[in-house]
Each structure stands twice: as structure tokens, then as C-alpha cells.
Amino acid sequence: MATVAGTQGCTRTEVPDPKIFNPTELNTDQWLESIVAFGAKYAVLVAKHNCGFCTWPTKVKFPEFGFSYDYSVNSSAYRGDIVSQFVASCKKYGVKPGFYYSVVTNSYLNVENGKVFGGKLVPGQVNVTQEQYDEIVLAQITELWTNNGPLLEIWFDGGYQQDIKEKLSALLLKLQPNAVAFNGYGVSVNPVRWIGTESGHAPYPTWSTGVSNGGDPNSTVWAPPECDMTMQRYDTWFYNAEVGIHTMAELLSIYHDSVGHNCNMLIDFAPQPNGLLPVDAVQRYKEFGDYIRNCYGKPLNSVSGTGATLILEFTSATTVNRVALQEDQSRGQRVRTYQVEGYVSDWVVLSSGSSIGNKKIDLFAHEITVTKLRFTAQSFVDTPIITLSAYNCATLL
Fold it and tell me: Strand 360-380 to strand 335-343: parallel, antiparallel, or no bridges (unpaired)?
């Protein structure tokens, strides 16, 4: 709804007319084609954002307090079920689906930060009590989590109301027990952590444990980080033709500071009001995906092993300009500090760091020709289980 209303998300003082929602060219297959071209393995649809508009024909009604949820595609000129189309396209293209549903904000119901505000309503708003709002939320997420098969991720943007915490947790465990939950610490057995910025640039170090920002290596809470960011510039989530999109250099910098800092990269796909992704974005997603595949799709050489030291040998002198390190995190994140060296006529330190986790990408200061590389875990809490991969990737002009 914010897309067709030309805003970056509704405030509590605006409820756009549902009749303006009419993405006549909407094609979820086009979305998934770009998602696959980028190289994504999962995709999260914004099923309901802050305006309160539902992109599926919600059937939620409560006759006992005279309520019917009438702010959805059912009330629009479009009248299609975008949620089911998205799930079908995900299945077709082999991408795992997830849903974003804003629990704590709903302009249609005069809700902000999980709280129903009283007083005068703006045109289009409906008055409900706090208890009624909580029931509506639980009913709608039950629809979403029941009718669309297994979900890989569920997004709680801004968290959730404490007064529905137990019911939310029970529903999640019953209906989507295997889904990871962004901002789900406290309600999910599979929480995923926000890193404290929507720029995509994760702080370093970023650990797999902890409940906020860069995490905490000493925490007992397993909550891997996810880096959400926009393809459009200036943190612009909904389509805006004026702001432009990130350059390849900017995207690669974000990639190395997200994926390369032990973080899942979640990049937005912002359709135009007609429902299609813009041509320049489609081209950039593919360009970005092509670079990642060409650079990191196949290493020059790779070795895996256990212990504090790992040596990667080449059959002949080989030029490298970066390495990727990975831990087997099924046993936990074990390394606390490390260094990587290259052998020329003697060992030379090429990089060092602390957190590795799922992946740490180290870009060297310059290309170097070596006959072998050596990884050394300088401090660790248990035996490291490491994969060391070497690359020599093109530098953007």
C-alpha cells in the first residue's frame, strides 16, 4: 500500500484508500526470476506493513465485537491474492518463502508500537480495544502460518507486544516450528538477530551468539545475525524513482561487510506501483549475482580440517587476493582470534581477525603469489573445525 501511496510506510495519521491499490501488471514470477538471478535461497514477502493493508484476502472477523477486517486486497481494485501467488512462484523457482507481518504497527486500527491509541480517528480508521487488536493479530498470523505451507523465516519487525508473547510463541511452535524468526528472541526456538542498522554493513566482529547488534561471544543465546538492506539508495524501502539504486561498488562493499562478516544478507526488492520490478533494478540484481558467482562460485583451492592450524597447498605458485573462512557451526562458534599467512620465500601475515562463524571474507591489501596459505587459530574455546578457501577475483574499475 505504501508503494502505491507514494510513501515510505504509513504513520498512525494516514490510512490510504484501499481502492488505489491496483498493481495491474503484478507478476510474482518476475520477482522470483530476479531473486534467483541474485542468488537468493529464500525470500520474505511483506504480507502486511504498517498501513495495515493485507496483501491476501484475509477472512478475519469477530462478530462478537462487530468487527470485520476490511482493509485488504478484497477492498481494492486488484482483488488478487498476492501471498498465494508469491508462495506458488517460490515453489516454482525453488526458493523458500517467508513472511513479514507487522505485529506492532497498524494505521488502519490506530496502532503504534503495539499500543491502540484512543481519541479521534482519521478517515479510514477503525476503533478497536487493545484486547481486540491482540485477537486480530493472532487470527491473521494464524491465517498466514496455516494456509501457505512451511515457511523458512517469519519477520517480527519492531518486535511484538509482551501481552501476546506466550500465545505468539505457542502458535509459532505449533504452526511453523522450523521457521527462523527475525527479532524472535523470546518467542522462537530459532531466533535471528538484527544487527542494529539497515545499511547492510555489519559491525566487526559479529558473532553468532547474543541478542543485539554484533552479538556476544560469551552469550548462551544462539541467534545468528541477518543484515537487511535496500537496493535503492538512502535506506529507501518502497519504490521511489528519484533516489536511484546502489552501484556495484557499493553493493560489493555491503556484501563483504554482511556475508563476509558472518551475516545473512537480506536485500529488498521494491516493485513499482504497477507491480513489476523496475528494469534498472532487475539488471543490477543479475549483475550483482553474476559477480558473486564468478568470484566465489569456485575457489582456486580449498581445504577443511580440525585443529588450531590448517595449511592450504597449491600445486604451483598461485596469485590470490582474498580468502574465505568458515566454521562448522553445528558444534558452535569456537574461534576467538586468528591470522592467515601466505608462503613466498617465508611466511607473511596477510590478514587477521576474531569472529569467523558462518563466513569471514578477508580481502588482502594487494594480490600476492604464494605456494601455500596457513590459517592459525590463535585463541579458541574448543577445537576449531575450519574450511579455508582461496580466491583471486576481479576488482571493479
Answer: antiparallel
Q: How far apart are CA 151 and CA 171, in angstroms?
A: 14
Amino acid sitting at position 44: V
Supply the DSSP string of 237-251, one letter for each residue.
-S--TTT-B--HHHH
d(CA 203, CA 197): 9
- Nearest CA to 375 among 354, 358, 352, 393? 352
Give me the phi and psi of 136, to 5 degrees please.
-65, -45
Q: Which of 212, 229, 233, 230 is nearest to 221 (CA)?
A: 212
pLDDT in tens, 20-67: 999 999 999 999 999 999 999 999 999 999 999 999 999 999 999 999
Q: Which residue has the cell 580449498?
A: 302
Question: Looking at this protein, which amino acid is placed at residue 303?
Answer: V
- Cα–Cα dist 44/31, whole Å: 12
Q: What is the pLDDT of residues 304-355, one digit of tens each?
A: 999 999 999 999 999 999 999 999 999 899 999 999 999 999 999 999 999 9
* Cα 244 to Cα 232: distance, rounded to the nearest angstrom: 6
Q: How many residues does the chain have?
A: 397
CB 229 within 8 A of CB 258: yes
**Dihedral angle at the C-alpha atoms of 134, 86, 188, 268, nearest 10 degrees?**
-100
Please tell me the pTM assigned to this model.
0.95
Contact 49, 103 (CB under 8 A): no
Cα atoms in the 13 Å half-sphere on the side-chain side of 199: 11
Amino acid at 78: Y
Q: Distance between CA 26 and CA 195 in Å, rounded? A: 32
How many of the other CB atoms lie within 10 Å of CB of 307? Answer: 12
Spatial CA neighbour of 264 closest among 181, 200, 312, 350:
200
What residue type is 180 in one-letter code? V
